[in-house]
User: Which sequence fits this backbone?
C-alpha cells in the first residue's frame, strides 16, 4: 500500500513522469511536419505545443469546435487525422508574413537619404560642368575659401561627381562625393540634397576630421549673366558659425543619350533605399534594407538586414543593424569585436552593426561571433544567435511568399539562393 502511494505522489510531483496522451502525440506529430514546431512528440501538452496549435490555426484561418486548448485535444487530433489529402497541412509548410512599407526609417539608416518630393527637379537637364565647394567666412566680410573643385556631370537632374580634389589635406578624397552625395538640380538652378563637406584645412600633426553632413535646400544665388544652371547654392555647416556654398560654372549642355555615366554615385544605378517592415520575422537592404521586427518563439527580433544585391544575385556587401538601443558601456564592448561597430542615430540612440565577410565558397560569415555574443546585452545576444543559426528559415518564408518580385530582383535572387541552400548566411 505504501509503495502505491509513493508512486502516485511521484507522478503528481514529478512532471516528467506524467502519462503520455495519444491525442496530444497525434497533434504533435502532425505539426512536426509543418513550420510550427510543437517540441518533442512525447504526448505531453506543454507551452510549445499550445503555441504551435494556436499559430497554425491562426495562419490557416480555421477554427475547431470546442476551442484549441488541451481540454479539446481529441477534437483537434480528429481534424488533423481527417486531412488525408494534405490540404490543411500545406497551409502550415511555410510561415506567412504581412509586409508593409515604412519609409520613416530611411533618415536613420541611410546617411544619403533626402526627400526631394517638395522640389521641382530638372529631370531633363543634362550638362557637363565644373564645380567648386566654398567656405564663406562672415567674420571676414563673407570672404570665400575654396575647399574642393573638379568636374561634375548632371544626368537627368542628378549630380554625378567626376575627377576632383579637396584642398583640406585630411581624410578627404574623391570617394566621398562620388559615393555619399545625393544632390539634384531643380528647375530654378538651385542644387538640393545631402553631401559630405570638408571645411577645415588639416596641417601636419593635427587630427583629421570626418566630413560634415551638409544639407542644401533653401538658398540660391543665380548667375544672372551666364544663365541656367550656373550659380551658387548655399548651406549651413552643422555647429559652425560659417556657411558653405556649391558653385556650378562652365556648364555645357550634352545630349541625354551621350551624357557621361555616373561614377559610383550612391543614388544612381540601384533601386531607391527601401525599408520593409514585417509583422513577425523579416529580412532587407540599404540598397534594400529589410526591417525584421517581431518574435521567434520567446526571442524578440528587431534588426535590419542591409546589403547591396544586383540583379544577377551577386551580393556586394552585407551587414546587420540591431535596432535595440545600447548603453555607453555596451557600445564600448561591441566596438572591441572584429567586424562590429556602433552607429549613433539622429535621436542619440546607439546601435550595434555587424559586417559579414564573404567566404571563399558559398556564402557570408561573421568574424569572431563569440565576442559579439558576449558583448551584447542578453536580449540582443539571443537575437544575434538566432540570426546566425536560422536566417535560412527567414529566407525560405519570404521566398515562398514571393517577396521582392521584379521591382527588387536583386534582393529576390539573394533570398532564393539562401532559401535553396546555395548561399549561406551565418551558420544556416
Assistant:
Amino acid at each position: 500500500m505504501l509503495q502505491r502511494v509513493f508512486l502516485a505522489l511521484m507522478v503528481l510531483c514529478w512532471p516528467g513522469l506524467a502519462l503520455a496522451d495519444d491525442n496530444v502525440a497525434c497533434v504533435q506529430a502532425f505539426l512536426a511536419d509543418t513550420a510550427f514546431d510543437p517540441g518533442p512528440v512525447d504526448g505531453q501538452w506543454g507551452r510549445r505545443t499550445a503555441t504551435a496549435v494556436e499559430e497554425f490555426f491562426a495562419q490557416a484561418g480555421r477554427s475547431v469546435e470546442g476551442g484549441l486548448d488541451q481540454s479539446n485535444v481529441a477534437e483537434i487530433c480528429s481534424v488533423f487525422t481527417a486531412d488525408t489529402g494534405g490540404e490543411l497541412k500545406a497551409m502550415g509548410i511555410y510561415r506567412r508574413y504581412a509586409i508593409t512599407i515604412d519609409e520613416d526609417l530611411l533618415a536613420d539608416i541611410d546617411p544619403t537619404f533626402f526627400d526631394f518630393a517638395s522640389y521641382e527637379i530638372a529631370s531633363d537637364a543634362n550638362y557637363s560642368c565644373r564645380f567648386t565647394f566654398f567656405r564663406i567666412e562672415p567674420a571676414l566680410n563673407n570672404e570665400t575659401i575654396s575647399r574642393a573643385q573638379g568636374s561634375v556631370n548632371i544626368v537627368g537632374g542628378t549630380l554625378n561627381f567626376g575627377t576632383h580634389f579637396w584642398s583640406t589635406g585630411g581624410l578627404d578624397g574623391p570617394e566621398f562625393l562620388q559615393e555619399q552625395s545625393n544632390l539634384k538640380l531643380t528647375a530654378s538652378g538651385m542644387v538640393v540634397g545631402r553631401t559630405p563637406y570638408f571645411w577645415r584645412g588639416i596641417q601636419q600633426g593635427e587630427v583629421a576630421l570626418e566630413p560634415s553632413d551638409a544639407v542644401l535646400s533653401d538658398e540660391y544665388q543665380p548667375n544672372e549673366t551666364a544663365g541656367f544652371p550656373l550659380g551658387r547654392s548655399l548651406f549651413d555647416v552643422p555647429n559652425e558659425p560659417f556657411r558653405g556654398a556649391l558653385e556650378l560654372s562652365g556648364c555645357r549642355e550634352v545630349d541625354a543619350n551621350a551624357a557621361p555615366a555616373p561614377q559610383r554615385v550612391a543614388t544612381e544605378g540601384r533601386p531607391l533605399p527601401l525599408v520593409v517592415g514585417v509583422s513577425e520575422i523579416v529580412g532587407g537592404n540599404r540598397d534594400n534594407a529589410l526591417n525584421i521586427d517581431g518574435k521567434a518563439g520567446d526571442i524578440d527580433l528587431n534588426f535590419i538586414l542591409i546589403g547591396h544585391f544586383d540583379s544577377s544575385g551577386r551580393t556586394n556587401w552585407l551587414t546587420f543593424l540591431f535596432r535595440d538601443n545600447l548603453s555607453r558601456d555596451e557600445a564600448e564592448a561591441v566596438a572591441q569585436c572584429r567586424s562590429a561597430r556602433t552607429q549613433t542615430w539622429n535621436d542619440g540612440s546607439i546601435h550595434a552593426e555587424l559586417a559579414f565577410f564573404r567566404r571563399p565558397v558559398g556564402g557570408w560569415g561573421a568574424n569572431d561571433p563569440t565576442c559579439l555574443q558576449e558583448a551584447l546585452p542578453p536580449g540582443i545576444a539571443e537575437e544575434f544567435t538566432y540570426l546566425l543559426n536560422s536566417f535560412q528559415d527567414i529566407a525560405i518564408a519570404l521566398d515562398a511568399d514571393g517577396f521582392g518580385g521584379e521591382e527588387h530582383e536583386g534582393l529576390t535572387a539573394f533570398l532564393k539562393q539562401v532559401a535553396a541552400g546555395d548561399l549561406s548566411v551565418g551558420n544556416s
